[in-house]
Design brief:
Layout (H helix, E strand, L loop, with lengths): L9 E6 L5 H13 L3 E6 L1 H6 L2 H8 L15 H8 L2 E7 L1 H9 L5 H8 L4 E5 L3 H5 L1 H12 L3 E2 L3 E4 L5 E5 L3 H12 L13 E6 L4 E2 L5 E2 L6 H12 L3 E6 L11 E4 L3 H12 L4 E4 L6 E3 L12 H4 L3 E3 L3 H7 L5 E8 L4 H10 L4 E6 L11 E8 L4 E8 H19 L2
Parallel strand pairs: 1-2, 1-3, 3-4, 4-5, 8-11, 8-13, 11-12, 13-16, 16-17
Antiparallel strand pairs: 6-7, 9-10, 14-15, 17-18, 18-19
The structure holds ligand PMT.
The site of ligand PMT has 26 residues, from helix 10, helix 13 and strand 16.
């Protein structure tokens, strides 16, 4: 047994009914090896896949299935109070739906509603269920309440199908549990008290009063970053292209429409910023001419719109003398490291987040993303499919690591 953050800590392991329940037994064993006390609780469905006796053998504690097993001591309340961290693995679509709507109709869901410790959910299900709008909405809701969603991974599923939906590796789930128990920096997050500029959404380049050149960016990634940095105690200026999203509470927002307006807003704030994160999808080109009147559809000016390049805001910041850490995004159709590194160096960045924009569940206008993070000091971190809230947290962790490295 090591001396890691799990030693002597109390982990509540909630298992729901999917084929991946057998991997929860492996997770229980790994948690015990890492020094934790593990209390397993199972849904009836989970117990059909792996019996409580398996968890009892591994953990040395009674694995509970029913609310009424110990009614005098109000089992669900007691189990929730004992936990330092709660891990739900596998979390089925049904379990996530119940958590997200506050349904407490068995021991696992009743215990969840009593928890005050950090909560981790590792979903596992068939791809169709993971991609259903109901599941997406439930995951986004849980993430907004602070539940850390780990995975799922892409891989082989029950019945031989392949796709996103496979339970993350038990080692990865364990690492996430351990991370929640790491003693924070003495004065909290390294972002506390810093000034961050975050850009979000897409720009619109007008042709006439009704038409524009735009893109599908919703602002979700940038808003998630602004919310996470604000949660860590930073003062956040969010510069947003048109978006339907509610600005995160406590974040100051400047609304812009075009790339030139975004450039002016960023440049005005960048000098005072400690960190600039550019998640916005800035149009690379804009029409040379803006027509004050709506163009008739048969006009030549509409048949061929002449474009001129927009300034590359990030490259401009990187080329000027600056103290701020610069974080850029790259919208790519693969996570190709070499091209990402080239962009990192060419734009003078400290960190680049390469994200996939060619898949239905990552990139533009969805709640999830997959990314490869590269830092100027040569580190790489691959983030498999996860929520944008979770990716925002990983990015903030990396920014903190860069700040730590810069410290004298
Ligand atoms: O808003 P969502 O729907 O949540 O979608 C999120 C996202 C996919 C838009 C986001 O995660 C993302 O990838 N943003 C960057 C999109 C992009 O413009 O990528 P790029 O490879 O073209 O640009 C690279 C970097 O340069 C980006 O940080 C961009 O902000 C910056 N840039 C680009 C062009 C320009 N003229 N000025 C810039 O500063």
């Amino acid at each position: 047994m090591g001396d890691g953050p799990l030693v002597g800590r109390h982990v509540l392991l909630g298992v729901s009914g999917g084929i991946a329940a057998y991997k929860a037994a492996e997770l229980a064993r790994e948690l015990i090896r890492a020094g934790a006390t593990v209390q397993a609780i199972l849904t009836q469905g989970a117990a059909s896949f792996v019996g409580p006796a398996t968890f009892e053998g591994l953990t040395g504690r009674r694995a509970h299935v029913g609310v009424f097993e110990d009614p005098h001591r109000i089992l669900h309340v007691r189990l929730a109070r004992e936990a330092d961290v709660a891990v739900f693995a596998p979390a089925t679509a049904n379990l996530l739906a119940k958590f997200a709507s506050g349904i407490a109709d068995d021991l696992v869901t009743s215990t969840y509603t009593c928890l005050t410790c950090p909560v981790i959910a590792a979903p596992a299900m068939h791809t169709e269920m993971w991609e259903h709008p109901a599941t997406r909405a439930n995951v986004a809701r849980l993430a907004s309440w602070g539940v850390r969603i780990i995975g799922p991974e892409v891989g082989q599923l029950a019945g031989g199908d392949e796709g996103p939906g496979r339970l993350s590796d038990p080692g990865e789930i364990l690492a996430a549990a351990a991370q929640t128990l790491v003693t924070p920096e003495p004065d909290g997050s390294l972002l506390a008290g810093l000034r961050l500029v975050v850009t979000a959404g897409g720009t619109r380049e007008p042709i006439d009063p009704v038409r524009y050149i735009g893109n599908r960016s919703s602002g979700k990634m940038g808003y998630a970053l602004a919310a996470e940095a604000q949660r860590r105690g930073a003062t956040v200026d969010l510069i947003s292209g048109p978006s339907h999203l509610e600005p995160p509470p406590g974040v100051s927002v400047s609304h812009v429409e075009t790339a030139l307006q975004m450039r002016d807003a960023v440049v005005a704030l960048a000098d005072k910023a400690d960190v600039v994160i550019k998640a916005a999808a800035v149009a690379d080109f804009r029409p040379v001419d803006y027509h004050e009147q709506k163009l008739k559809k048969d006009t030549a000016a509409l048949a061929s719109v002449i474009l001129t390049p927009n300034p590359d805001i990030l490259a401009e910041l990187g080329a000027r003398p600056h103290d701020a850490l610069l974080v850029g995004f790259a919208a790519e159709t693969d996570l190709e490291e070499e091209r990402g590194r080239e962009k990192l160096h060419r734009k003078g960045l400290d960190l680049i987040v390469i994200n996939r924009v060619d898949m239905a569940d990552s990139g533009f206008n969805v709640d999830t993303n997959r990314a490869l993070l590269l830092t100027m000091d040569g580190r790489r971190r691959e983030v498999p499919l996860t929520t944008k809230a979770e990716l925002a947290s990983v990015i903030c962790d990396e920014v903190e690591a860069l700040i730590r490295m810069r410290a004298p």
